[in-house]
Predict the structure.
Amino acid sequence: MPELPEVETVMRGLAPVMQGQMIAQAHVNRPDLRWPFPPRMAQRLTGQTVLALRRRSKYILLDLSGGETLLVHLGMSGRMLISGDPLGRFVNAHPSPAKHDHVVFAFGALCKCTSVTRET
């Protein structure tokens, strides 16, 4: 399980890419991880802007423009992947969703994609 410093590092790495971006589309490829996802999760996330990222304990919190907060926990081997050209320095093609890509976001017109992945 990622320890507190690793979670902080992940959150700080995601902030410049995700903060201020609109979630153009959300895909939920599995109905639950530890607990069932909220009803209509993909629809509720689509169109929301990520206002801020913060950390509480080992959770990454994404404050959304609709007043909700998305809670992310990396579990034992979770990861967040960024593809596209988010900072103008790197270009990585996002692979097709694999078995453990449970939630995928497409951000704005640049289609920056993030997947919450956890081995189960």
Observations:
- The chain has one domain: 4-117.
- DSSP finds two helices and seven strands in the chain.
- Strands lie at 23-28, 50-56, 59-64, 69-73, 79-83, 101-107, 112-117.
- The radius of gyration is 13 Å.
